[in-house]
Every structure is written in structure tokens, then in C-alpha cells.
Amino acid sequence: MVVRARTAVPGTECFARHLGGQERASFALDLTSDQRLTTNDRVPRMKIDILTIFPDFFRGPLDYGIVRRARETGLVEIAIHDLRAFTKDKHRTVDDRPFGGGEGMVLKPEPIFECLESLGDVASREMRLRAGAPQSVILLSAQGRRLDQTLAAELSALSQTGKGRIVLICGRYEGVDERISEHLADREVSIGDYVLSGGELGAAVIVDTVTRLIPGAVGNQNSTRQESFTESCSGQTELAGDGPSSTCVSGGLLDYPHYTRPAEYRGMEVPEVLVNGNHEQIRSWRRKTALAKTLRNRPDLLQRVRLTAEDEEFLAQIKLDQGTDRDEARPVSTKD
Ligand code: ADE
Prior knowledge:
By secondary structure, the protein is of the alpha/beta class.
């Protein structure tokens, strides 16, 4: 990961100190050659730029697991850009009071416009809005379209062009000058119906969800297809190798429960059906428990899923087991 800062404006001591060797070096989160897993020099499938007033925030979240590995193997290249480096005053001011009065401060447009313009190779907003464009500039904000797996997949698909690029602009909760949304970003995205103090967490969430969907990022690509919210199949058995594959997609339902060894822990036992080796029974148990969990935690999802006759039967049985026909929240047994 690279943290970029603009070259210093002469005469601004504080600014110069910030950009000077020591502080700037501590921002260098780029991978060392030891950390790069491959020796190839392939072009990353996806470039992600994050524009933020808190560049240090990203030291941790993007340095672990799948995202780290994707960076190491060159599938994704992430650069963090410090918006304060694009201010011109000695206080490195990035926000100002809102026109018309009111509480809070609003992020100023200039550092954001100038930072984006400094990136190079970012297509105009008009080009980015065209169908099939490989780039997207996203403003993170509570007012945006809510992120879901469909949007994550759409963004991840930009990588298939070989020229995929996503720029994430982290707003602050009080607001960002609307000209960013109107004239610079091509979309506004929220990660959920709650207000965060800024877009940084949202940006990290987008990087994670998008990266893991890039082909090659996850060891077993099938595993990203079976997770909750994946809507491509309705519970068919997929037999692979010596057992039901864990790739039985959940078809828009929440994922089924998972267990691993030990089979018994402090008196809590793994459902018998999972250890008996009967693939059809395992498939059926997984579908039923996925339905049960969805009914309990996200009944709204059931309205959008194509339910099979078997699903309907399962649901009726689950409701009966719960002693109710109402969709009310009750603990659901995952025992077979
Ligand atoms: N900034 C503030 N709240 C946010 C949210 N819910 N999603 C993304 N960015 C935000």
C-alpha cells in the first residue's frame, strides 16, 4: 500500500514537517519485496485509491487476510492519499462552516478535487458514467445507495477489464460539499442505515467485499459463491470430491451454520447429521437451517428468494417447531 503526499509548499513549516522524511516514511505501508508472494510483475487487476483525512486509519484493516494476500499477489493495488496534503494554508484546513448556517463543519471541495486530479488516468465523470466503464469514483456517505453483495460484485467485476479502478472518497459525518457528489463522484455509497463519524470504515468495508470477489483472491472461489446474500442458486446439491461441497450456494438466504472439530465441546455437540457422511441429508439440513436462520434474523430476505416446494415444506416445519405460524423472532434449533 502506498501513502502519497503532494510535494511540500515552501514556507509552510507544519506542512513541510508533515511531508518531511520522518513522518512521510512512517506512512509508507507499501509491501517490501519479502512480502510480495509472486515474482511476476503483472499489472494489478484492480487499483483502489482512498482519499482520506486519516491516512493512518488504513494501516491495520487492509493488512490482513485476503486483502493482504491480494495485495501481495498483485491482484489489487491500494494507495492511500492524505487530503491534507492538498490544502494550501498552514493549518492544512480541510473543512469549513456550512453556508446558510447550522451545526458542524463541511469538507471543502478543493482538496478533494485536487487530490483526485493528481491521481492521473482517472476518466472524466461522464466517461465513468457510461455503461461498461472500468472505473468508479465513490463518495462514502450515509446518504448513499446502500452497499450490498450485488453492488460489491458489480464493483469487483471492474477488475475483469484488467483496468479496474475504484477511487473511494471518505466523507465526514457532518457533510461533504455537495459539489463532490454532483460533479466529481459517479456514485454515493453508504455501508448501512446508521451514521458513522466518517467514510473510512466504509471504505475499508468496500475494499474487503470487493477484493474477495476478484477471481483468485480467495483460495476456493466457490466459497464466495455459497455465502449469505449470494443469489445464484436455490439450494441444489453440489457434490464434489468426497462430500457435499461447501459450495452449496445459499440462494439469497443467510448462510447455514458451520461447525468444526471437536465434535463435542463442553457438552455442546455438533449436529449428528454433519458427521454421518450422508450427503443428501447434509444438503437438506443446510438448506433447512439456512431457511431457519433467515426466518429468524432476516425475514425480509425470504420475500426476495425463489423458494422451492421443499423450501416451503421446510419453512412450514420450522414454524411448527417454533410453535408459531407468525414470523416472530425465536431461537431456532440447529439440531437435526
Ligand atoms: N459516513 C457516515 N455514515 C456513513 C455510512 N453509513 N456509510 C458510509 N459512509 C458514511
